[in-house]
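Recap from last week: sequence in, structure out.
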Amino acid sequence: MQGIVLLGGYGSRLNLFTRRVSNKALALVYNRLVFEYPLNTLVRAGITDITLIVGCRYAGNLVNVIGDGKEFGINNLNYVYQKEAGGISQAIYLAKKHITKKCAVILGDNFFEMEILDKVSSFEKSDKGCGLFLKEVSDPERYGVAEFTKTPDNIHIYNIEEKPKVPKTNNAVTGLYFYDQTLFDKIENLKPSARGELEVTDLNMMYIKKDNCVGYGVEGFWNDMGTYESILETANFVKNKNFNLSYNINAWDK
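Predicted C-alpha cells:
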C-alpha cells in the first residue's frame, strides 16, 4: 500500500501558534513534533511510499524539516501543495497522480498508539474498497459517528452521521482511512457540502452504500492533536508511557 498524509489546513484551533509561529504539524508534543506520530503510524506498518499534502502558511518550514523523508523511514516521498482548504476529500484528491494502488490516508494531527500492520495486510488481501477505524469516545457529537454491526470476525458499518446532536453510538470515525483505486473517481462525483467542502464522510458513505466498507476497532490511546488541550494530553501519554517511534531521534544530530 501507499500512503497519504494530510498536513494542510489552517490549524485555526491553534491560532496563536499557526498565525505567529509555524505550521501546526511542527508543534512540539513532548519530545517529538506533531507530524512525526501519524507519519510513523504508516512507516511502522511498512508503508514507505508516501505523499504529503502541505499547505497554508509556513508550508516551507515543514518541507525544510522533513526533507527527502529518509531519516523518518520513507523510501519514496512526494509533496503536493494545497492552495486552499476545501475539505479532506479535496485534499486527498490532490495526491491522485502519485497513487497507483490501494492506499492509507491519515490526518496529520492523529496519534495512534496501536500498530496497524495486521490491518494493512488484511485490507490488501480483501475485496473491500474502504476501511475505517473506529474508537469509542466520550464526546461523539464532535465526530462522524458510525453505526455498525459486529461479529467476531467483522465490523460491518452501515451508516455514518456527521457530528450528530444526538449520537446513536459513541464510536467515532478516526482520521485513518484505507481506500482502493476507485477512490479518485468517487471524489470526482462528490458534491460540496453546505460549508462548501468535499467531506470525507460523504466519500466514505459512497463505499458504505455499496456494502464495500469494513471497520476496524482502534486499540489503545488515540487522539487528534488539534487543540492545546489535546496536544498536552498526548504529550503526557508519550511521556508517561515512554512511547517511542521507529527511528532514532539522534539521526537529527548527524
